[in-house]
Automatic annotation (TrEMBL):
<protein>
    <submittedName>
        <fullName>HD-like signal output (HDOD) protein</fullName>
    </submittedName>
</protein>
<dbReference type="Pfam" id="PF08668">
    <property type="entry name" value="HDOD"/>
</dbReference>
<feature type="domain" description="HDOD">
    <location>
        <begin position="14"/>
        <end position="210"/>
    </location>
</feature>
<dbReference type="InterPro" id="IPR052340">
    <property type="entry name" value="RNase_Y/CdgJ"/>
</dbReference>
<dbReference type="InterPro" id="IPR013976">
    <property type="entry name" value="HDOD"/>
</dbReference>
Length: 282
């Protein structure tokens, strides 16, 4: 069996995204869908409801009153934020463990996933993107391929590192050379296997490499820049470290410059403790 075939087979070992998350996302993507249908889906799932209320009452939101129902949560936080929280809850299971192959301690990859999703959403608002749920979800799940690759990278790390240090490969390029697939491609394969919409599959698959879309897909650029902000802040940086190339064209395509990037980094730096409070509510 080839390494790629073995990696793809490992997808079955992941916890699949629950059906409710896929239903909520599908409705959120549909401009004709009634938001009341989303609320009903959530209300009739006691586990999601309980976890949602726990998150809504975490220090992250710092509300003066307790949120006691899905109805209250929607009225106070808005449907957009509720959809994002449901997706976060449903995606948590695969990311929280240690990713030994990348040298990431327990919880580190999940912290980066949540941080990337929040920064991506804020960026989407900043540049006026409409598909914010998709951007948030892509930011959250873009590294799902790492969960699988972590089991394979460790044994081959020296070979990958040699390509990076001696032959000027990026870490992603070195992964591809040694393993036959990189984390971007594998994340896209997972998204397809889980039945995500073609658009979400594209965002997840391309968000590590916006040059593949010629920097013309603003949603891809947003998720990519959000990930780069995480790296600059030292969030979720493992053995692969800074061995990735920053494509400034993605920033330029969004109409953003160095000052915008500094503001984004400074703004999110103040939110890190709040993000940790939110993660702690899972």
């Amino acid at each position: 069996m080839s390494a790629v075939s073995e990696l793809i087979r490992e997808i079955d070992g992941l916890k699949p995204m629950p059906q409710i998350a896929q239903q909520v996302l599908a409705l959120a993507e549909d401009p004709m869908a009634d938001t009341q249908k989303i609320a009903e889906l959530i209300r009739f799932d006691p586990y999601i409801t309980a976890d949602l209320l726990k998150m809504c009452n975490s220090a992250y939101f710092a509300r003066s009153r307790t949120i006691d129902s899905v109805h209250d949560a929607i009225n106070i936080l808005g449907m957009d934020r509720i959809v994002d929280l449901v997706v976060m809850k449903c995606g948590a299971g695969n990311f929280s463990g240690e990713q030994r192959g990348y040298g990431l301690d327990e919880g580190a990859l999940w912290k980066k996933a949540v941080s990337c999703a929040i920064i991506a959403r804020d960026l989407a608002i900043r540049v006026g993107l409409a598909d914010r749920h998709l951007v948030f979800t892509a930011g959250l799940l873009r590294d799902i391929g790492k969960v699988i690759l972590s089991r394979f990278v460790g044994d081959r790390f020296e070979r990958i590192q040699h390509l990076v240090a001696v032959e000027n490969y990026s870490f992603r390029e070195a992964e591809k050379k040694i393993l036959g697939v990189d984390q971007s491609e594998l994340s896209g394969i997972v998204a397809k296997k889980w039945g995500f919409s073609p658009r979400l599959q594209t965002l997840i698959r391309n968000s590590h490499m916006p040059e593949g879309a010629g920097f013309s897909d603003h949603a891809v650029n947003v998720v990519y820049v959000a990930d780069q902000v995480c790296i600059m802040l030292g969030i979720g940086v493992g053995l692969d470290g800074l061995a990735y190339r920053f494509h400034r064209e993605a920033l330029k395509a969004l109409g953003l410059g160095a000052r915008d990037l500094q503001e984004i980094i400074a703004g999110f730096g103040d939110k890190i403790r709040e993000v940790e409070d939110l993660i702690g509510s899972f």
